[in-house]
């Protein structure tokens, strides 16, 4: 670990330019603004000649980086044998550098091989503008080695603090004291000029309920609101989704089971957008009495959602808001939180776009759950009112969350 900290890794990949940029030297090299007398400078590339005491970098034979759900999988193969202990001892390193856009500029992280007991572990570090590293942090990972020249490591993307989107990456093998060097001198890289990986938010496969079994709103201390839509999916669902996508807000959709198969692509789009799907029974029947009938309605809708999307919902909304202690207890036993609302513009009655807008924005409070509809009849008024509702609530400082986030439910990933 200490040897790894001493290494100043090189060549900050510039995503905008797609090339290499000179960075500062490690121990023994010149500080920024000073002259390194034993290096040759050509354009933005500085070549440091190897010395008798500096081992050559490991030659990279293969390298790959892929996304698997919420994890990144990094694999590599070198031409020479190595161990995590030998890397720290001889001043060489093996890292994958990730360069991504952060606001108007670019930032980068290095994920590097380190010794973890008798096996290979990982650490990650922020790459500073100078080319040096910030503090190193242990990275929880599953690693395996088929032989002394290879490594496969799987680690959680969220732990790195990198947003979803395009990231340029390449695997680097460097030597200690590297200033900036050309391939074959004090570093080796694959892919040679970097590759782009599009990081996408992973799709959840289910959720685990949390908190009370019956919920009408979230905490009044948080300046958030949850938009919900019932009775879909339908031909109006993609119109609602397009607005949410454009405005970059999330919502929750309580779906009727018998409609899911005919609009399965819409349900998958909901989840792909980061929105959440909930259970609204099989055919919108009154299930307030609970019992076997209610159980069948809920589980049939759950099965349709799982078949279409691979997602097992943990949120349930009773048709008509008709609930009882028997029903909420039954739903919790089936793995659901029963969700009602505290803002109802009665858009199902088609009171007009203006009325829907004013009834929502006039009644929202901290933690409100807003009931609207994307199915069950003509919903053009709801679609028309939605952009202004979002704009007004944003202007008032509200953030938009899913009901899973509002209740603290835990999303599960495969």
Structural category is: alpha/beta
Rg calculated over all Cα atoms: 27 Å
Tell me the fraction of residues in β-strands, as a range. Answer: 35-45%
Which spans of ≥5 residues are poorly predicted at pLDDT below 50? Answer: 1-50, 179-184
Q: Mean pLDDT, as a whole number?
A: 85
The largest β sheet comes out as:
6 strands, antiparallel
CATH superfamily of the largest domain: Glycoside hydrolase/deacetylase
Instruction: Give the CA-CA distance, first to last residue.
Output: 32 Å
**Global outline:** elongated
CATH uppermost class of the largest domain? Alpha Beta
Tell me the helix content.
10-25%
CATH topology of the largest domain: TIM Barrel
- Our count of helices gives 10
Write down how many β-strands occur, each being a DSSP E stretch of 2 or more residues: 24
Please give the CATH architecture of the largest domain: Alpha-Beta Barrel
Topology:
Layout (H helix, E strand, L loop, with lengths): L1 H5 L5 E3 L4 E3 L18 E3 L2 E3 L12 E9 L2 E8 L5 H7 L1 E11 L2 E12 L2 E9 L5 E7 L1 E4 L5 E7 L8 E11 L11 E13 L4 E5 L5 E2 L8 E9 L4 H11 L3 E5 L1 H4 L3 H9 L3 E4 L11 H19 L5 E2 L8 H9 L3 E3 L13 H9 L6 E6 L6 H16 L3 E2 L2 H5 L2 E4 L1
Parallel strand pairs: 16-21, 17-18, 17-22, 17-23, 18-19, 20-21
Antiparallel strand pairs: 1-2, 3-4, 5-6, 6-12, 7-8, 7-13, 8-9, 9-10, 11-12, 13-14, 15-24
Helix pairs in contact: 3-9, 6-7, 8-9
């Amino acid at each position: 670990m200490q040897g790894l900290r001493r290494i100043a890794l090189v060549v900050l990949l510039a995503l905008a330019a797609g090339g290499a940029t000179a960075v500062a030297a490690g121990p023994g090299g010149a500080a920024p603004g000073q002259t390194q007398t034993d290096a040759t400078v050509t354009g933005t590339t500085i070549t440091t000649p190897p010395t008798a005491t500096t081992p050559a970098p490991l030659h990279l034979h293969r390298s790959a980086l892929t996304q698997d759900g919420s994890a990144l999988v990094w694999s590599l193969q070198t031409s020479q044998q190595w161990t995590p202990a030998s890397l720290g001892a001889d001043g060489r390193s093996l890292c994958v550098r990730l360069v991504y856009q952060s606001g108007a500029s670019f930032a980068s992280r290095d994920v590097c091989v380190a010794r973890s007991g008798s096996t290979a572990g990982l650490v990650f570090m922020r790459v500073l503008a100078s080319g040096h590293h910030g503090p190193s942090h242990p990275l929880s990972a599953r690693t395996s080695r088929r032989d002394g020249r290879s490594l496969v490591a799987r680690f959680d993307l969220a732990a790195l603090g990198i947003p979803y989107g395009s990231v340029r990456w390449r695997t680097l093998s460097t030597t200690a004291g590297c200033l900036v060097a050309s391939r074959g001198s004090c570093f080796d890289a694959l892919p040679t000029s970097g590759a782009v990986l599009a990081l996408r938010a992973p799709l959840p496969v289910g959720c685990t309920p949390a908190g009370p079994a019956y919920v009408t709103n979230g905490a009044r201390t948080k300046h958030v609101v949850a938009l919900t839509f019932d009775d879909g999916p339908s031909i109006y669902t993609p119109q609602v989704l397009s607005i949410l996508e454009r405005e970059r807000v999330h919502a929750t959709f309580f779906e009727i089971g018998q409609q899911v198969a005919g609009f399965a692509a819409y349900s998958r789009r909901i989840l792909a957008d980061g929105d959440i799907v909930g259970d609204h029974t099989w055919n919108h029947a009154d299930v307030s009495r609970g019992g076997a009938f209610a159980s069948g309605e809920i589980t049939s809708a759950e099965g349709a959602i799982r078949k279409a999307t691979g997602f097992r919902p943990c949120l349930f909304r009773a048709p008509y808001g008709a609930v009882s202690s028997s029903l909420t207890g039954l739903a919790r036993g089936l793995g659901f939180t029963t969700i009602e609302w505290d803002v109802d513009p009665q858009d199902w009655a088609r009171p007009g776009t203006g009325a829907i807008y004013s009834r929502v924005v006039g009644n929202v409070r901290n933690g409100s759950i807003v009931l609207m509809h994307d199915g069950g009849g003509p919903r053009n008024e709801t679609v028309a009112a939605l952009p202004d509702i979002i704009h007004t609530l944003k202007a008032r400082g509200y953030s938009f969350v899913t009901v899973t986030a509002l209740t603290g439910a835990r999303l599960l990933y495969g």
